[in-house]
Design goal:
Blueprint lengths: L1 H7 L6 H23 L1 H8 L18 H17 L3 H51 L4 H4 L2 H43 L1 H21 L3 H24 L1 H6 L3 H27 L1 H27 L4 H42 L20 E10 L4 E11 L3 E6 L5 H8 L7 E6 L2 E2 L5 H6 L1 E5 L9 H6 L7 H10 L3 H5 L18 H15 L3 E5 L7 H15 L3 E5 L11 E6 L2 E6 L1 H7 L2 H11 L1
Parallel strand pairs: 3-8, 3-9, 6-7, 7-8
Antiparallel strand pairs: 1-2, 1-4, 4-5, 9-10
Helix pairs in contact: 1-13, 2-5, 2-7, 2-13, 3-5, 3-13, 4-5, 5-7, 7-8, 7-9, 7-13, 8-12, 9-11, 9-13, 12-13, 17-19, 19-20, 21-22
């Protein structure tokens, strides 16, 4: 029930709908019981058992309520029908119809209001999950498969709606329906109702045994759904490579293995779940059968119960079966919902290690320097950076070079605070980045990566991501600085052209220039370029390099470079090897040392 309580917190904004649902459910439960009790006077008229009553009866106390109501209805039937029995029959049939009409009207109104609560909770959980997905650090997704996260935000949340939130409909209505029905049953025959209560616990025990393993089965189903969604996501992302290496059959095999497991888990879960309804119904009919025997004896032999009351009593007894079945089904729903809620809450309750202090510093300008003081960092067990020191003065360009795995991109991840250092401090103008608000820290920085991350949207909206509510003139100006304006104007709808998923309608150089335009539009004082030209051909590289140089003018830049030809004008070049600085200086100074940098330049020249 812990998960249920946690999910129920999301219902608070919609509690007025919950109260209205409860109100109409109470009325539904009451009229549900009364509609069956109203069968007694109708049957009395049919069986010609109606006593003619010419004076209105007097109400004595609650103990004689049943007799009073029966007398009162008989009085009304007598007054209305006189000697015409059909008139009396029409009256009691009308009474039954009105009661059933109100019962169904209140049922509709109860369902009407709970719909707003259920869908509102569904919306809010999804919104909170999306907010959390964006808020969690990049490191979280190196451990989680994207498809699994998608499964949690879609099917698991839907499962919560189907299982947990459907209980809200039953939590008042079904128990009250049973309660009111039992009260009327006690009113008709105390002895017979006591007999029913012997059988109900036995039926309940059998039903609860079936549902015990449902949570485990449901967990397997949901986990496997996340698995095959991950395979789909990876397939769509790497379709070009899959086709190039003729790996379609291999991926199909992986996917079909996952769907086969899903098939097996789903069959096991649904078959167990489907067992609930027939078992519940059979046990209910068993109770009805025993009642027919015991009640029939009371009518035919003991003469302690009249036939019309017994038939109405049987209707009431059957009226208990539907809510009892719904409650037993709901208990399975809770077990299934528990597995889904556990997976959803796992994300919602994950602590973000990249946290903000209370009242963080909001910094909107950059005046002196970025300083990395004696920092050490590891992703898992081995340190990527060890006792690393670096100062980037305002207005200078610092280039980081070295072989793959030397820690260049890690520095960009630490300065932007995508990760936190294990030891040491990173400061901007003397303020530790951990004391700055994440929004203002990243507001000071523009990032252009090796992979141009673009979205399935128009050129204008992709560039406009750099600045909210940017004007068309600002977007065009940024595109011109990035050498992108000319090729954009040649596109079918210019700036309004949709560039496809990940910008796949554009070439590598065009994508990169859009990324640069986005960074230019943001106009940050600090620019981080992570191997921004390494994936380009010579012609594209020239255009991109020119765009980068324009963008870096009068800015502080940290450039992570693979192609050394692009960083010859940097104020400082830092050569890294296994997370440590081995050389530092200008292009000419480092060449004259004939050390690691010189070797890297010679290797690229030969290449």
């Amino acid at each position: 029930m812990d998960y249920f309580k946690k999910i129920l917190r999301f219902a608070k904004p919609y509690r007025k709908y919950g109260y209205l649902n409860i109100f109409f459910n109470v009325l539904y439960a009451l009229f549900s019981a009364l509609s069956f009790a109203a069968l007694i006077p109708m049957l009395d008229v049919l069986f010609d058992k109606t006593k003619q009553v010419f004076e209105a009866p007097k109400y004595e106390d609650l103990g004689h309520l049943k007799d009073y109501l029966q007398e009162y209805i008989n009085y009304r039937v007598t007054a209305y029908s006189g000697d015409d029995e059909m008139k009396g029959l029409v009256l009691v049939i009308g009474l039954v119809l009105i009661l059933f009409l109100f019962k169904n009207l209140f049922n509709y109104l109860a369902m009407f209001f709970i719909t707003f609560l259920r869908n509102g909770v569904l919306k809010d959980i999804r919104n909170r999950m999306y907010e959390k997905v964006v808020e969690l650090p990049i490191s979280y997704y190196s451990e989680k498969r994207k498809g699994d996260v998608i499964a949690r935000i879609t099917s698991d949340v839907l499962e919560i709606q189907h299982s947990f939130l459907s209980i809200l409909e039953l939590i008042v209505r079904e128990p009250l329906t049973i309660l009111f029905t039992i009260l009327i049953m006690f009113g008709i025959s105390f002895k017979l109702t006591l007999f029913v209560f012997i059988f109900i616990p036995i039926a309940g025990m059998i039903i609860s045994k079936i549902g015990k393993s449902l949570k485990r089965q449901s967990d397997n189903v949901q986990r496997e759904q996340g698995e095959f969604l991950s395979i789909i996501e990876e397939t769509l992302g790497g379709l070009r490579v899959i086709k190039a290496f003729n790996s379609e059959s291999r991926f199909y095999k992986t996917f079909s293995s996952s769907t086969q497991r899903f098939f097996n888990f789903s069959n096991s879960l649904l078959n167990r779940q489907n067992l609930a309804s027939p078992t519940g119904e059979f046990l209910g009919i068993l109770v009805i059968g025993v009642l027919l025997w015991f009640g029939g004896k009371m009518v035919l032999i003991d003469k302690t119960l009249d036939a019309s009351s017994f038939i109405a009593y049987m209707g009431l007894a059957y009226n208990i079966l539907t809510p009892a079945k719904a409650i037993s089904k709901a208990s399975y729903g809770v077990k299934k919902g528990n597995a889904a809620a556990e997976r959803v809450l796992e994300i919602l309750e994950t602590e973000n290690p990249i946290s903000e202090i209370e009242n963080p510093v909001v910094k909107t300008d950059f005046n002196q320097e970025i300083e990395l003081k004696n920092i050490s960092f590891k992703y898992e067990d081995e340190y990527i950076l060890k006792n690393f020191d670096l100062t980037v003065p305002k207005g200078s360009t610092v280039a980081l070079v070295g072989q793959s795995g030397s820690g260049k991109s890690t520095i960009a991840n630490l300065v932007t605070r995508f990760y936190d250092v294990n030891e040491g401090d990173i400061t901007i103008d003397g303020i530790n980045v951990k004391n700055l608000s994440k929004k203002s820290l990243r507001g000071l920085m523009g990032l252009v990566t090796q992979d141009s991350i673009l979205f399935n949207d128009t050129v204008k909206n992709n560039i406009g991501l750099g600045k909210e509510n940017a004007s068309e003139e600002e977007i065009m100006e940024a595109a011109k600085i990035a050498n992108a304006h000319d090729f954009i104007m040649e596109l079918p709808q210019g700036y309004e052209t949709n560039i496809g998923d990940s910008g796949n309608k554009l070439s590598g150089g065009q994508k990169q220039r859009l990324s640069i335009a986005r960074a230019v539009l943001k106009n940050p004082p600090i620019m981080i370029l992570d191997e921004a030209t390494s994936a380009l051909d010579t012609e594209s590289e020239r255009l991109v390099q020119d765009a980068l140089e324009k963008m870096m003018k009068n800015r502080t830049s940290i450039v992570i470079a693979h192609r050394l030809s692009t960083i010859q004008n940097a104020n400082t070049i830092v050569v890294l090897n296994k997370g440590e600085i081995v050389e530092q200086g200008t292009h000419e100074q480092l060449l004259s040392k004939k050390g690691t940098y010189n070797k890297l330049v010679e290797m690229q020249s030969l290449g």
